[in-house]
Amino acid sequence: MRALYPRLPAAIFALMVIATPAARAQTPASAPEDPRVVAASQRANELGDELRSPFCPGKTLKTCTSGQAFTARQEIRDRLLAGEDEEAILSDFQQRYGNDLRNPPQPWYTVLGPLLPVLVGLGLLVAITLRWRSTREAAPVEDAPRSAEDDERLARLRARVSRNDD
After folding, report:
1. Which of 73, 94, 118, 165 has the fewest CB atoms in 10 Å of its CB?
2. In the Cβ-directed half-sphere of 46, how many Cα atoms lie within 13 Å?
3. Which residues on adjacent β-strands are paired with residue 62?
4. What are the start-end ranges of the H helices in 98-147?
5. Range of the domain at 118
6. Residue 12 falls within a domain, yes or no?
């Protein structure tokens, strides 16, 4: 077992050297430096978040993981880079995929959806705290009348405790 300890650092170093090319292969390419490309990509993301995906029901074009959605997002970006108007791009998409591409405006109470568990938790915490405080502040319960047996048992316990203390 002791023979392994001198080889352990060398083995760890060898694993790190072997794993480095695999880790580099998984890192994403660097972001483009051209401000026009960056602005077009950001606007394409915003548009993708505003449009429903015709490929993934219930998702936006931005959150859809379909290859077709990726192609559509790239097309939006490329057309924005070419200087095409957003309305022209949207009308073209509506002709191709239907008129129900735009997300409808969300009502104000949809904000409560993600906050609902937090609000319920806080409500329960307040209710438990109030209940706990009300039981602490309640009047003390009076002792029930003791019988002769209880007095006798109490005397024996006190005698036993006093013998153990000595």
Report:
1. 165
2. 8
3. none
4. 112-136
5. 107-139
6. no
